[in-house]
Amino acid sequence: PVIAAGINLFGGPLGLIHRHVTGAIPIRRNTKDPAYLVTLKAYVAELLKQHDLLFYIEGGRSYSGEMKPPKTGLLHATLQAQRSDAVVVPMAVSYDIVLEDHILAHQASKRRHRAFGREVAEMVRYAVGYQSRAFVTFGKPITMSGYDPESRRDIMALAHLTRDAIGMLYKVLPTAIVAAALRPSISRRDLEGRCDALIETVAAAGANMGVRSGREAVDAATEPLLARNVIHVERGGVFRIRERTVLRYYASTIQHLISGGRRSPRTH
Questions:
Q1: pLDDT digits (tens, 9 = 90+) for 221-257
Q2: How far apart are CA 181 and CA 222, in angstroms?
Q3: Tens-digit pLDDT profile for residues 87-138
Q4: Residue 171 DSSP class
Q5: Contact 75/83 with Cβ under 8 angstroms?
Q6: CA pair distance 179, 67, nearest whole angstrom
Q7: Domains delineated in the chain
Q8: Which one of 211, 217, 244, 248 has the fewest CB atoms closer than 10 angstroms to its CB?
């Protein structure tokens, strides 16, 4: 597929990769320029005659870990292309460890975002020497027929349907479970118990589970969270939080499965 990416990703070496390797198309987010929007929609209509289009319904990365509200620009453009065979294939990507977790989490807490080039430079420092698994899950295609491209209500309904499908496809991993279950000071036994209860809750919500027990979650998540200095484990097996903001980032990735999309009070 052709990938749609924010124009901020097209500067420097990364821009060269997008232009000559990935073939991604740059998108100006949040622009209100009528000429640009008309041109973009015409381009998408032409593109869909020969290619699939991959884009992120939230419009960009989440700095808090939570799912963001859906953006409708490219979805609207696809509807306006009036292809009777067009479908949305929801896709969710989850990671054991997000290599830029410290950067994203702390920027979210400061309510301001650095230039992407600076983020990449800092990410190298946090990424070197670490490994992480990525899980990509595809869902059932959602037909776009029956949605009126001139109806704002229809566009929003399709956008939320897509976002909700992605939320249910998101694989629940040990790091997220442990992050959500941790308290400032907690024994391993109590932590496993809290993880078991949390796993039961999200599994009952129909989540895509990547962990089955509290013991499995703690076993798998402890080492990577220790290595990134997010938690500390004392000799007696007591878990303590070191990077509360980063831990909250991981906990927030499954918040939509716990609260049904409603924001909940902070627990750390």
A1: 999 999 999 999 998 899 999 999 999 999 999 999 9
A2: 13
A3: 999 999 999 998 888 888 877 655 555 555 566 666 666 666 778 899 999 9
A4: E
A5: no
A6: 16
A7: 2-91+137-169 (no CATH), 98-131 (no CATH), 171-259 (1.10.10)
A8: 244
